[in-house]
Amino acid sequence: MSTETLSIRIDSVTKQKLDDLAQQTRRSKSFLAAEAIAAYVDLQSWQVSQIQQGIADCDAGRGVPHEEVKQWLKSWGKKGELPPPR
Q1: CB within 8 A of 80, min separation 6: which ones?
Q2: Of 30, 59, 62, 84, whose CB is crowded by the most CB atoms within 10 A?
Q3: For residues 55 and 71, is the Cβ–Cβ distance under 8 A?
Q4: Going residue by residue through the chain (86 aa), what tens digit of pLDDT does each one get?
């Protein structure tokens, strides 16, 4: 995979933590920063796609009505607990 250079600004406390971590792990600051950015982007991309899917499901009428969820939650831990609504 090819790589590209990216310049960023970070606060001095985070920079010091990155310096310390790089030294402790014997990894370069660039390696650690690239790994952190990749993990962040992957997580945020997944989260946004799940939110968009949820919105599309609701728009298509594939949601569970609020009142059904509310009644189910009220039954938690009680005798006769309701099954999760679908």
Answers
A1: none
A2: 30
A3: no
A4: 899 999 999 999 999 999 999 999 999 999 999 999 999 999 999 999 999 999 999 999 999 999 999 999 999 999 999 999 98
User: How far is C-alpha 74 from the geometric centre of its chain's CA atoms?
Assistant: 28
Residue type, 43: L
Residue 6 has, within 13 A of its CA and on its CB side, a CA count of 12
φ/ψ of 6, rounded to 5, equals -135, 130
Model confidence, pTM: 0.75
Which among 9, 8, 30 has a CA at the least distance from the CA of 19?
30
**Residue 45 sits in which domain range?**
12-75
Residue 27 lies in a domain: yes
- Domain assignment of residue 4, yes or no: no
Domain presence at residue 82: no
Number of folded domains that form the chain: 1
